[in-house]
Every structure is written in C-alpha cells, then in structure tokens.
Amino acid sequence: MKNIADNSRRNFLKNTFAAGGGLILGFSWMGSETFAAEIVQNPALDELAFNAFLSISPKGSVTIFSPNPEIGQGIKTAFAVIVAEELDVDWKDVIVKQANLDTKKYERQLTGGSGAIKHSWERLRKAGATAKQLLTEAAARKWGVSASTCKAQKGFIISSTGQKLSFGELAEAAAKLPVPADVKLKKTSEFSLIGKTIKSVDNKDVLLGKPVFGLDYKTEGMLYAQIQRPPGFGQKLKSFDATEAKKLPGIVDVVSFGNKVAIVGKSTWQVMKARGVVKMEWTNEKELESDEMHNKIFTDLMNSDKAEVRRKDGDVEAAFKNAHKVVQAEYQCPFLPHNPMEPMNFFADVKGDKARLVGPTQVPQSAQGAVAKLLNIPVDNITVELTKMGGGFGRRLNNDYALEAAELSSIIKAPVKVMWTREDDMGGGIYRPAVRYRFKAALDKDGNMTGFMLRGIGMNAGNATRQDNFPVGAVENVLVDSLDYKSDITTGPWRAPITNFLAYAEQAFMDEVAFAAGKDPVQFRLDLLAKVKQSPVGKITYEPDRFEKVIKAVTEKSGWSKPKKGFSQGFSVYFSHNSYVAQIAEMELKKGKPVLKKVYAVTDCGIVINQSGARNQIYGAIVDGLGHAMYGNLTFKDGKPQETNYNAYRLIKYNEVPEIDASFVDNGIDPTGLGEPALPPTGGALANAIFKATGKRLYKQPFSLEGEEVEQML
Amino acid sequence: MPNYKLKINGKSSSVEVAEDTPLLWVLRDSLDLCGTKYGCGIAQCGACTVHLNGTPTRSCVLPVSAVGTSEVTTIEGLSKDGSHPVQKAWDEIDVPQCGYCQAGQMMVAAALLKQKANPTDDDIEQAMSGNICRCGTYHRIHDAVKLAAKKAK
Predict the structure, then answer these.
(1) How many Å lie between the alpha carbon of A489 and the closest alpha carbon of chain B?
(2) The CATH number of the domain where B132 resides is what?
(3) pTM value?
(4) Is the dihedral of CA A258, A263, A267, A273 positive or negative?
(5) pLDDT of A584-599, one tens digit each?
(6) Residues A509, A441: contact at Cβ < 8 Å?
(7) Whole domain around residue B38: which residue ranges?
(8) Which residue of B has its CA nearest to A626?
C-alpha cells in the first residue's frame, strides 16, 4: 500500500471539483501480490493510472469496472459482490461495467483456467474495505469523533449517537483523504452478501434483447465479411475465381490472404450468397488425415518406446512383475468442437498504423499483441473493446478470427466485421484434441493397488496426462508418460482442458480396479486417500481431507450404502482447477430400460460467492459433461470434419437432462474457480452407473456409439 | 431489389432486400433488431425464434418474401421494459449464463403460455426441447416457464 503523493493529490482535488465530486479509488488488480490502492482523479477509463477502480458518485451509486471477459461464467457479478460485501453498500446501488483492454494497466486480463476468483479474492475485498475506511474517516472528521466509533451499513456511515451520512454525501470528502496503509477485512461470519442468492448483473440486457454481443456490434460504414478457409486440414488454396460473385448485389470485394478467400459486402445475406458462387480450387501436398489414419497412429504410439516420462515413483516394473492381479484398460475420445452458441466473429478497423478491434475474446491482450505483430504496428496503437460473449468454452482463447478481421480490414482499408457461420465454426478448427489412454493397475492378493501406469497419447494435446492426479500419491510404484502427434488439425483448450476426458478415463478405470479388487468403489478410494494422509508417495497437489469430505457428503446425500430397488448408482470424484467435486449418477429402470434419473454433486470450491451463479455453473457443467460424453463426436475424412452443423452433430437438449442435486461444502476456505471443475467427473459417474445397471464397461466417447440402449439412457 | 412492408412489433417497416433474404438477417442487418440471434442457420437450434402471428417461427430459414402481412414479434417486442411474465420469470429464476440463446428460449416459452395457460411438464418439455442452450440452463428454463405461467394469471 502506498499513500497518495502530494503532487498527484493536488491534481486530484482540482479535477475532482471539475468532475463534480465523488470518490474514485483505483487499485492494482493483477499486477503484484501486494495490494496497492490510490485515489485517482478522472473516471475516464483511458486516463486512469490503475488497472481497476471503483467509484462512488455523489448520489451514492457505486460503479465497479470488471476487467475479466464474461463468457457466461458469472464473473462480472461475482467480482462486484465481493467488493460490495466489504464496502457495505446496498447491492441495488452497485453498477458493474465491463472494462476494455488496457495492457499497461492489466497484466493478466483473461478468462481461462477457472482462475479469476482465486486470483482476485483478496484484491477485491481490500478495494471495498479501503473505500469503506475512507468514507468512515470522512464521516468521523465531520462529526469530530473517532472513526472507530462509527460503522458502515447499507451505503451509510452511522455514528454511535445515531448520526447518519450517506456514501454519496461523503464521497467527495473521502476523496481528499490519504489512502490508509492497512485495512481490516471482515470475518467470514460477518458476510451478509457473499453466499447469498444474487441474480446476474447482465440479466436486463439479455432479457430485453439488447445488442450486447460481438455479433450485434455495428458502426457507421462497417462492411460484412465471411471467409472461406480450406475445407480440409492440410489443404492449400490453389486458385479462385470471383468474377460471378463480384457481380452480385451488395458485394464490395473478394480478396485472398493467408490461404483463404474473403467475401466482403454490405449485408450478411448478400455475403453468404456470393460466397456460394466463388469458385475455389484446393490442393494438398501430403496425405489428408482421417479417423482411420488417427487410429493407426494411436495404436503405434501406444506401443512406442519414445514416450516422455511425466512421473516416476518407486519401481513400477517390479510392482507389475510381483502383482497378484493386473487390470488394464484403454479409453479414447474424438476431437470436439467447442460450439459456443455465438459463432466466432470480430470487428476491425485498421487505419494506417492504428487499429480498433471490437468483439468477443477470452484473451484480449494476446489479440492485441498478435495483431500488432501481424500488421507491424505499435501495440499502443491498437485498442480492444470487449463485448459480452455467447459462450466460450475455451474456443475464444484463440484469436485466429480476430486476426482475420484485422488482416482483412488492413487489406480492404475499411471497417469490417468477420463472421463465421456455424459450419465455419464446427469445421474450421481449434478443437478439443482426440486422445487415447492406457491404464494399468497392479493389485496384491488383498486387493491393494501396488502399481499404477498411465500412458496418454494426444493429437496436438501437449501433455495428455495430468501426472500428479489421484491415485498418484497413494500408490508406491507409478509411471506416467505421454506422446503427442503433430496433426494438421488445429486444437486448443476446451472447457477443463485434458481433464474433460482424462477424468472420465481415470474414474471409470478406478471403478474397474475396485471391482477387480472386490471392493466398494467409494471405500476403495477412501482407503487410498487414507494412505495419502498417512504418508504421501512423492509430490501431491490435492488435499486428501477435502477429497474425503466431498466423497462422504455425496454418498450420504445419495444413499450410496443403501441402494434403492430398481436404481443403480455410479460414483466419481475429481480435483481440478483447485476445486473438488464428487458426483453420483443414478439410473432408474423405466419400462425395463435403465435411464439416467439424477446426478448428485457435492462441491468444495471454498467460500461460495453467489449461490445462484455457483449453482448455475454446477448444473451447466454437469449438463455439458453428460451431453458431450454421450453424443459429442467429430469425425474426419480426407482432412475434412464430417459433422459441421446441428443436423449432424448432437448437443444435449432440454428433454435429456436428469434431475440435479447440487450442494457445497461450507468450510470458509478462500474461494476457488467454478467454471470448469464440475464437468470432469460427470462422464465417469455416468459410465460407472451404466456399468452398475448393465454390466457393460464403456471405453469410448461418445457413449451413444455403443448402440441404442446406451444412446437412450439420457 | 424488391421492397417489403413488414409489421414488426406493432410498427410497420419498409426494407429493400432480395426476396430470399431470411427474416433473421432483415431484422439484424436492415432493422437493427439484434435481439434475435443467429446460431445455426438451418432451423436446428432455435436461437432465431420469433413469433409470426403468435406462432414460434425460425427466422433463419424464413424468406422475407414469405412473411407477407403476418405480424412479426421479436424479443424487443415482447415488452419494452421487461415486464412480460416470461422475462420477469427468467430474471427471477436467474436463468441466463452467457445469455445468447435466451431470446429464442423466451419466445418459445411466451408462445407456449399464450396457447396453454397451465402447461404440464410434458407440454413444457415438448415446447422447449427444440432449443439448444450450450451453457445447459435447461433446469432453470423449466422453473422459469412454470413461474411465468403463475405470473401470467
């Protein structure tokens, strides 16, 4: 913390009066581990010296600018709740605004990895508490009393004798005080807003159909564009003929860049129609990829001796040699498109060495940097304005579409919005990588796991394993290794990268091992966790106690130990993105056929900021996990994705979701992320429940490929 | 290009577009009514749902030339201030995550409630199962339709 310098203080006072008063508190959001706050003088974002701020107007409303891109994870609401809690302002007086990109002020302005809450928790609390302390001090001075005798309540400072001044009345006086060196934060037991059910701050815009998404953005003179990319991965543009297309009404230009052809016009439909008549020829220099080719590569790499060792504990060879029983299984999953409902799009207006970008991205700063490099213009000359996003699921961590818009605008020298159609979106790449796993477990004669092996093979997956995941830490002899194939098919993070499928494989395998050991799958894991608590083998990244608590809570809730007649349950538990989630999927026999009836989920994400937002994330992640485990399938032939719209690619629908019972562990621990952690365990819980109901083990996603019986289980 | 006189949200509008232009793009590009969303372009996801004389209709595959004298209602016309029971219920239940599909979901729900004041769970399932929500807000959509039915009384 630092006190405001005299010089800037004088500046501040002058400007404050000019601006009509109010307290504007800037604070360092992402920069360093220590919190720094300073009173700043001008509310215009681009003139601020800080990466975040809250302002209190003379009328008493509190505005907080949220730097993180909102993709539906509810961060905009959650951040504001944390500030409002420590500030003791009435929630109805809080306004939340999306901040645009500022690379000077924000060192990390992104949505990914479920990391925002964990990162910003203390910073946000201190910002609220600092403002409150300034307001309290201002009131105390007016009344000639000590600040310690005053308290804040719902937007007012109240003295011990009952005098009362509103935040709005105090804001200007508070702004003249130095920022305190230290502030007191509330005890968790004093929270009155955090942990309550709070509606999203964006509801009004969404429910009225306001044009808040990237695809809704328009500006004077803006042209519309679509881009034809190679239909197959590995193909190159040989030639194109746009003579006919250019004759069509509304078409402004057809240009080629970077192996693509862009059709530019005055409206979306005119562009779509013209796109259909541009003649294009594509070639390839090598064999185009297909599922058959991938299968062969997977098989070869599974038996390769060139794997990269990710973790080695003990002597795994000896453990398997001396094993009483060995369990082995292989699991595989296809590439998956992210399918956010709003397809990729971006607006760019490049003029000389300046560029203005507007649109949906999870990583605006890397868009800015990449455009600067691509067009060879200074980073400082590029502005990025953030729109609300119609989902992301990791797709918008890659800015390929923003770069296309910038490049196109620089070529045609006009403001332009590039829109991907659904076919472009599903066929154009950046997918969850296809992955295959082989697990091996060695059991002694008492059914104890003495050895554990995991090999992960990915298509552009990097490290397809997570080598420190449970049961690692509970087993003496471990070998985890991986291989990666450099495919022409572009991949990237997909909600809960790697673990979105690895968790299913691990949890289905653990179930199979427990069965082979003749043990209850829940008890089997609890026994392993007991070993970790006693003495962990090597480095562990999870806390066994927190694991245990969610496991016990979900088994109690679901009646695991006393199964009801006609019902079968499957169990799964996972630690990812710093949160713990245990799930039990419950199948019910309906007309002799097992159908998924209910999913119980118990989550430990530490303190729950907003019950409504948190529950929405748990429900959504489970629905997402079920849908993709059951139906998600993207296949390849001649380098081309075969399923490029919803008539061929199935997403889960309203009539296919089970009941969900979601609850949270109440432990007062600092909060962690929720955008991803409830998804990974879902596929495993479902697969294990299907095994209980049918005796059938599932090794491949999507499960629906197993046939009609499984396909109709949702 | 032909000229079309459309009745949208109680007002008449005139647009000059090709006859095969889907109503979706007329609304979004020509009339600045961007609440109606593009999701798939082939009537599979429901994000583009509007009312045509009260009937939920996929505007992404409806050519403007087929609209004729029908009354078109979009999300912007459901109410000016969010006071429609469906909008109020959607807010109260806090349905949206990303929010992109919700205009389409609400238009389907509003049409259902007009037709059936007291929809059963089966009625709701039948009506709502054609609209995709990638965020998976289906449970809250169910609760919100139920609440909207109560509010409409």
Answers:
(1) 23
(2) 1.10.150.120
(3) 0.94
(4) negative
(5) 999 999 998 999 999 9
(6) yes
(7) 3-78
(8) B136
